[in-house]
Design the sequence.
């Protein structure tokens, strides 16, 4: 099966308006008038960002959703995406069929059609790069650099589930009931991009998605904004599964607070906008503190300064 | 050096307007009013699309230029690009410094600034994916599917040099003078995107860049347009170096006509637009025939039907 046949069979059916049926080397779009473009790219490598034997549809979903999560954190509406896929020999037609099904299902669910991309072979691990495009009302995207002292800090959903799920995948962690285990495993395998939060984020001053651990990502946002603050882990929303873990293994809190793959949204909201933000939020959001001046500090579940070995997960 | 430090040191200096200093997860652009967006993505893998020991600046240039070539073939003006970079351990700071220099030099030369991207590590070969954005006057991009019988076919520059250069890299080919060798090697190493041809392409009906060999790419364009034609190799522009090769090794013509990496532009131009197209072209363009009906045929240098082993280079 050559590249053109592969594209025609597996990916052309997913092409949206502007994708030209994947028959050209480009996508052609008329940008919605009066909107700004938001563009983001994320790469995933088998064995680094996911397990190579993960279900192909879950790999596809993760690759798209980590990008949608970046759009969500800017309050953007998805427009479409391009996929660059470097395929090892072992990813054959059966693999591609399930991968494309998963990709197509997500593209429909999130209203983000395939616009183009490239498919090449690699002697190395499966490597995916997705570039997602979205639109936002001009001037309304909450940037990472815009937090100000006094803003209230919010986070969506619950924190740390995916990082704990990864530990379970690695054979680590305490004994948990099957349903709690499955919850954590699924949170690792299939992130949920918080696009439903986009309208609420028009009320935020700064925001980013939490992909490299809450402690480290909050530190990044505060540093980029030239401000400080306190992350009090007693205020952070944790799932029942995470709390069950902490009850048996106190070290779980560090994994949850500094591990990656949450794909929740962290937002700094001016206090006078907080009611509007909370009212517009259609997914759970929790106030976890406020932006301050000076340094950044993390308090553990006892209220004492946390002594974590690492600040944020870093790829290097 | 963690990911943030790496981005701040090597890539943030290349960020253009909208790139937010690479301090956010996204780029934010106000699309030029009254223009359509052209978006394209191409991936390159070390050992597949380039030699891993190629100069890092040449690798950067190739990764960007193959995308700019796609924009050029649609008559587009570059807006910017995102880079996903999967780095093996051996690509250290010295490598990155030269890579970023090459990328920055090209970004300036072609007016296509860095807008964002992602940097991850890989246990496999160096893998790059670039998504390039450009703009074009609405309705004026010449699509691959739009050629009509009677259109004249043009190609820019000379054909086959890069494919012959690759043969030289592989230790093959006849004995050539150092200057002819160097010319072919450089044509392989550093493609020249034909952005200067963009204004002329407003007069074309269909166009694509020649990346997988002229014979195969022309066949693709004609098939996608539902038309046929003849590629008479006696009409195709070949460089002095290619002709010197053919004089010693007649098999060179097949490599030149079916090999890849030309990054020239192939265009189908209505005859009544041909004079305007030629007048607007600021790089050499050569008329190589006309679009016909029915089948597609290649004639060799003797005027007989060519018997080539392969139609187009395919990655699968």
Sequence:
């Amino acid at each position: 099966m050559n590249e053109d046949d592969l594209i025609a069979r597996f990916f052309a059916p997913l092409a949206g308006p502007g994708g030209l049926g994947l028959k050209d080397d480009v996508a052609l779009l008329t940008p919605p008038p009066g909107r700004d473009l938001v563009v983001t790219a994320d790469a995933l490598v088998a064995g680094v960002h996911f397990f190579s034997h993960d279900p192909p549809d879950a790999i596809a979903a993760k690759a798209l959703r980590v990008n949608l999560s970046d759009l969500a954190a800017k309050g953007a509406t998805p427009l479409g995406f391009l996929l660059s896929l470097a395929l090892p020999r072992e990813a054959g037609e059966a693999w591609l069929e399930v991968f494309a099904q998963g990709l197509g299902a997500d593209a429909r669910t999130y209203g983000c059609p395939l616009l183009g991309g490239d498919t090449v072979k690699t002697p190395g691990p499966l490597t995916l790069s997705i570039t997602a495009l979205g639109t936002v009302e001009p001037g309304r995207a909450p940037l990472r650099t815009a937090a100000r002292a006094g803003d209230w800090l919010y986070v969506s959903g619950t924190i740390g589930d995916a990082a704990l799920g990864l530990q379970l995948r690695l054979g680590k962690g305490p004994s948990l009931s099957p349903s709690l285990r499955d919850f954590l495993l699924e949170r690792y395998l299939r992130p949920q991009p918080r696009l439903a939060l986009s309208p609420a984020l028009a009320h935020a001053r700064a925001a980013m998605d939490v992909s490299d651990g809450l402690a480290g990502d909050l530190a990044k946002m505060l540093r980029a904004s030239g401000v400080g603050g306190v992350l009090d882990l007693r205020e952070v929303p944790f799932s029942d599964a995470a709390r069950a873990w902490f009850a048996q293994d106190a070290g779980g809190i560090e994994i949850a607070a500094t591990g990656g793959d949450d794909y929740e949204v962290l937002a700094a909201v001016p206090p006078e906008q907080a009611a509007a933000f909370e009212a517009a939020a259609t997914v759970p959001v929790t106030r976890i503190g406020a932006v301050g001046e000076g340094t950044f500090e993390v308090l553990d579940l006892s209220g004492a300064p946390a002594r974590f070995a690492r600040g944020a997960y870093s790829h290097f």
